[in-house]
TrEMBL record:
Keywords: Signal. This is Iron complex transport system substrate-binding protein. Belongs to the bacterial solute-binding protein 8 family. Residues 28-56 are annotated as: Disordered. Pfam families: Peripla_BP_2. NCBIfam families: TroA_like. It comes from the Bacteria. One of its GO terms (biological process) is cellular response to iron ion. Residues 1-21 form the signal peptide.
């Protein structure tokens, strides 16, 4: 059991490194960030002239997030997804039957575990090729780290489309729409995006009734001590805190900055949200036991909440559920069932 637990912690630590890289935390400095970008800055779509007559989106040429022009002659029937949020999106678009490969990190929906894995984030190129995919999907942060493997796939004649890493909710929408185009599910993508927009608007409207004096100061931890990472401006997590009418304690920082316990405790937050309880045992108790945190309102009032990480840190359709989860934790009197 001990070795299994150690393996779980090591795997979670690796996922955290990849997650932070994807969110712009390459630097160890407190204010590390990346310039926000959107798919609209990178993506061009060229549809056939007779598309309306044929009633088909294919063939289609897409200029992806890394400037590659990718032509898909027909709707993909064998897709390999190298990013969990991309996989979730494909299934949300009712295109999951076409997925023949995924990574070890894919956990949702449950049926993805029955699909053959091509390894971890550093995927096995030969295993991908052996699946004979007609489309491989990933995002730009992954492409930066594992570009050599992706180039091998391109050289093998496999279309690879890189979507933009999502640093904002708007970019999440654009990514969903791009995946919809690539998989022949544009109409489904429009429905998913509209549903998300409506859910966000509903939460925001409800949160607008919260008086200014009751506005909560929230501290978020996406990685535990000693290297505590939180969320700052130009992230979709920061946007979700804004939507629920809460104040982000680290809101003056950019991206996903790193803090020490001593730096973080100075914010004296009303509420603490963590996302690492799935791999750190007794995570909430660990925060309560921090010596310097004993007088922090969130600790005194027992207002530390362990969120479902996948709903709040994976930039996909479930972010709409994530914002509701955050709202219920921060303002249970307003959003509680």
């Amino acid at each position: 059991m001990k070795s299994l637990k150690q393996l779980k912690i090591m795997l979670a630590a690796l996922l955290m490194v990849i997650f932070l890289a994807a969110c712009g935390s390459d630097s160890a400095t407190e204010d590390s960030a990346t310039e926000p970008t959107t798919d609209s800055e990178h993506t061009e779509v060229v549809a056939p002239a007779d598309e309306e007559e044929e009633g088909s989106e294919f063939p289609i040429t897409i200029t992806d997030a890394v400037g590659q022009e990718v032509t898909l002659e027909a709707e993909p029937e064998r897709i390999v997804s190298l990013i969990p949020s991309v996989t979730e999106t494909i299934f949300a678009l009712d295109a999951g039957d076409a997925v023949v490969g995924r990574t070890d990190n894919d956990t949702y929906p449950e049926e993805v575990t029955e699909i053959e894995s091509v390894g971890e984030m550093n995927f096995d190129v030969e295993r991908v090729i052996a699946l004979t995919p007609d489309l491989v999907l990933t995002h730009s942060s992954h492409a930066e780290r594992y570009g050599e493997g992706l180039e091998q796939l391109r050289n093998a004649g496999i279309p690879v489309i890189v979507v933009e890493e999502a640093d904002s909710i708007e970019t999440v929408y654009e990514t969903i729409e791009m995946i919809g185009l690539a998989t022949g599910a544009s109409e489904e993508a429009e429905v998913v995006v509209t549903d998300m927009q409506e859910k966000f608007a509903e939460v925001q409207e409800k949160a607008s009734t919260i008086p200014e004096e009751d506005k909560a100061l929230v501290w978020v931890e996406v990685a535990p001590a000693p290297d505590i990472y939180t969320t700052g401006q130009n992230t979709f997590f920061h946007e979700m805190l804004t939507i629920i009418n809460a104040e982000n304690a680290a809101g003056e920082h950019e991206g996903w900055p790193k803090f020490t316990e001593e730096q973080a405790v100075a914010y004296n937050p009303d509420v603490i949200l963590i996302t690492y309880g799935f791999y750190v045992d007794n995570a909430i108790e660990g925060i309560k036991e921090r010596a310097a945190w004993q007088d922090v309102p969130a600790v005194v009032n027992d207002r530390i909440y362990d969120l479902n990480a996948d709903e709040v840190v994976r930039p996909g359709p479930r972010l709409a559920e994530g914002v509701e989860q955050i709202a219920k934790a921060v303002y249970p009197e307003v959003f509680g069932e």
